Amino acid sequence: MGRMKDIAIDVMSYEADELEVDEILELFATLILSGLAWTLQGSYGRTAQALIDQGIITPDGEIITELVPA
Q1: 2, 7, 53, 66 - which has most CB atoms within 10 Å?
Q2: pLDDT at position 5, please?
Q3: How big is the CA angle at 46 (ends 4 and 37), to the nearest 5 degrees?
Q4: 61 and 29 Cβ atoms separated by less than 8 Å
Q5: CA 53 to CA 40: how far, in whole Å?
Q6: R_g of the chain, CA atoms, integer Å
Q7: Following CA atoms 35, 13, 27, 47 in sequence, which dihedral angle do they give, to the nearest 10 degrees?
Q8: pLDDT tens across 41-54, in order?
Q9: What contacts 66, CB < 8 A, 6 or more positions away?
Q10: What is the pLDDT of residue 21?
Q11: Dihedral over alpha carbons 22, 33, 5, 1 (to 10 degrees)
Q12: Contact (CB, 8 A) for 30 and 61
């Protein structure tokens, strides 16, 4: 249950716009790996799919490109 609590906290931090770019990538990698990206509200699935389509995260939840904030 501990990891689910961590994910919930990360999702709330994401919603509050409190995460850095690398933390957002880690969150979405975790959501993709766990399958939660596809069960949460639609914007999570769309963002996860966009990150996969752009080659930033693999369908297996591995971050393959680091983004540098502008």
Answers
A1: 7
A2: 85
A3: 15
A4: yes
A5: 19
A6: 11
A7: 70
A8: 999 999 999 999 99
A9: 22, 25
A10: 93
A11: -150
A12: yes
* Exposure letters 43-58 (e unless 16+ CB within 10 A, then b): ebbebbeebbeeebbe
State the Cα torsion 60-65-68-70 to the nearest 10°.
-90
Helices (H) and strands (E) in the chain, counts: 3, 0
pLDDT tens-place string over residues 19-66 = 999 999 999 999 999 999 999 999 999 999 999 999 999 999 999 976
Q: Which amino acid is at 18?
A: E
Q: How far apart are CA 34 and CA 19, in angstroms?
A: 20
- pLDDT bin (cut points 50, 70, 90) of residue 68 is low
pLDDT of residue 69: 55
**Amino acid residing at 7:** I
